[in-house]
Amino acid sequence: MNILFIDDTEQSRKRYVGIGGVILHDDLMGNIFSMFRRTKQVHGIPSEEEIKWSPDKDSWIAENLVGNNRISAYSAILDLVRIFGGTEIVAVVRRDMTSYGVAEAKWKCIEFVTERFQFFLQAQEDKYGIIIADFPGSGKDEKRLLSDYYQLLDKGTDYVTPSNLIMNLLTTESHLNQGLQIADLVVGITTAMCTPHSGYASKIWHIVARNLYRSADGIVMGCGLKIYPSECARDIYARLFPEHFEEEEYEEDRESMRYLYSQIMSEDELNIHFPRY
To answer: How many CA atoms lie within 13 A of 162 on its CB side?
Structure first.
């Protein structure tokens, strides 16, 4: 079973909203969580301390794990994704270029992540999966999320039917789940890199970037990382993947994604999601 752990983030005064995280196979989950606890111990982090990209100001991490020490600890934790064969998927919406409120932007991200998880599952030997999400803030919010997501699984998004997700998503508190804590780092760092103020994220980004889901052709843009709207996506992709981003290569990648979605989208819809510049 493939399990996608997802968390959300709001950055740059909520202009950027991101949701995403890490896919882990249940065969290796015990091993990665054991190493997660060991890594915390090696870096002197108390066992009960929650790993967060933006820790509370009065938390142990905020007061004691600072500068290069935090970068070292978080780098070691994120490297576990590669060691244990995990994969990452993140969707980011730039709200100031849309009419979305925060809740609408988050739901858009959830749809994007679900579509890409479905494509991931279709390409695996073990083709089935579930999603575990961080508890959304209140019982009322949780009921709404579970109800809405149940409808999404039943009807699909506008473009994809997530038939390989075997049940509704599950929620739990992130401080009780190591997978969600890794997801917090992944989505926090990736979303920060999409903003004009990446800060410490730039020092760890290379670890996150190499674990993002790629298509069979090695495409990450629009696959492991989906940025919306498309008007801002190209510049962000070029900044995040400069070593691979040549105009000719980008054209090929975009055409590959257009072909992938061509069976489920009209030409107008393809032009919205994968525009030709």
So the answer is: 29
Contacts of 231 (CB under 8 A, 6+ apart): 97
- pLDDT, tens digit, for every residue of 221-273? 889 999 999 888 888 988 898 876 655 455 666 666 666 666 666 776 666 55
Q: Encode pLDDT of 43-74 as tens digits.
A: 999 999 999 999 999 999 999 999 999 999 99
The dihedral over CA atoms of 133, 134, 138, 139, expressed in degrees to the nearest 10, equals 40
Say yes or no: domain 2-232 is CATH 3.30.420.10: yes
Domain boundaries along the sequence of the chain: 2-232
Answer whether 27's CB lies under 8 Å from 195's CB. Answer: no
Are 214 and 223 in contact by the 8 Å Cβ rule? The answer is yes
